[in-house]
Amino acid sequence: MNKNYFIYFLASKKNGTLYIGISNDLKTRVYQHKKDLVEGFTKKYKVHNLVYYEVFTQVKDAILREKRLKKWKRKWKIKLIEKKNPEWKDLYYEL
């Protein structure tokens, strides 16, 4: 069975606070963020909307992509989100 790995962006609102994470179970992980079951940044700053994600089959590729994205300038991250999700819709409900 092939396992997928995801890097994802959460946002507090359009052009709001951003968070980048990685998971092998995107739906469950975003649910945990939404319900504030995860202590830390997303709970403190109310960063709950899934606005972008990418799928990988190799965990090493996902980790590398996450590390690179975290070094990006904010405007590059916003451009990446808006390319696929110009409305900043919460994609969680489409998973």
UniProtKB/TrEMBL annotation:
The record ties this protein, via Gene3D superfamilies, to: GIY-YIG endonuclease
Which InterPro entries does this UniProt record tie to the protein?
Answer: GIY-YIG_endonuc, GIY-YIG_endonuc_sf, UPF0213_domain
Transmembrane feature ranges: none
Where the record annotates domain GIY-YIG, the positions are 3-79
Record family assignment: Belongs to the UPF0213 family.
What is the protein named? GIY-YIG domain-containing protein
